[in-house]
Design brief:
Layout: H1 2-11, H2 30-45, H3 48-54, E1 60-63, E2 69-72, H4 84-106, H5 114-142
Antiparallel strand pairs: 1-2
Length: 144
């Protein structure tokens, strides 16, 4: 197998180029990478790929007993289907829960005042708990 890969290089020779990296290209900062990862996490968990392929409506509608059309944010009885707003709301909750864990990690920083540590603990745990219970409520609305 290796001889198959080496055959073109027996005839061809790589040019000896002296390329320099442009001075305007820099290593991105850690926060820039974190933001890119967080935005991509938000879009992927929101079902961006599903939304592009299936093209669901942003919200649905249902008819009440009087014959009036009412908007519906959740696609009932279908776990593997969603409206666009439903996916974005769930993705927002997933992201808030993840940010709660990041905030909890920041509480371990040395030389942090006790009040700041307590406030960060409260905010981190509340983000995680709100996210968890709201996601459970979404699933109850989806599967009555």
């Amino acid at each position: 197998m290796e001889s198959l890969y080496a055959t073109p290089f027996a005839v061809l020779q790589c040019p000896n180029l002296r390329l320099k990296k442009p001075s305007w290209i820099q290593m991105p900062s850690a926060m820039t990478i974190y933001r890119i990862v967080l935005v991509s996490y938000f879009l992927v968990t929101g079902g961006l790929i599903y939304d592009v392929i299936v093209e669901p409506p942003s919200v649905g509608q249902t008819t009440d007993e009087n014959g009036h059309q009412k908007p519906v944010a959740f696609l009932p009885y279908r776990v593997n289907g969603q409206y666009i707003m439903e996916g974005l709301a769930a993705s927002f909750l997933f992201t808030i829960g993840g940010l709660g864990f990041v905030i909890l990690d920041k509480t371990n920083a040395p030389y942090m005042a006790k009040l700041n540590r307590l406030l960060l603990l409260m905010v981190g745990f509340s983000c995680i708990l709100i996210s968890f219970f709201m996601c459970r409520m979404f699933m109850r609305m989806k599967l009555p």
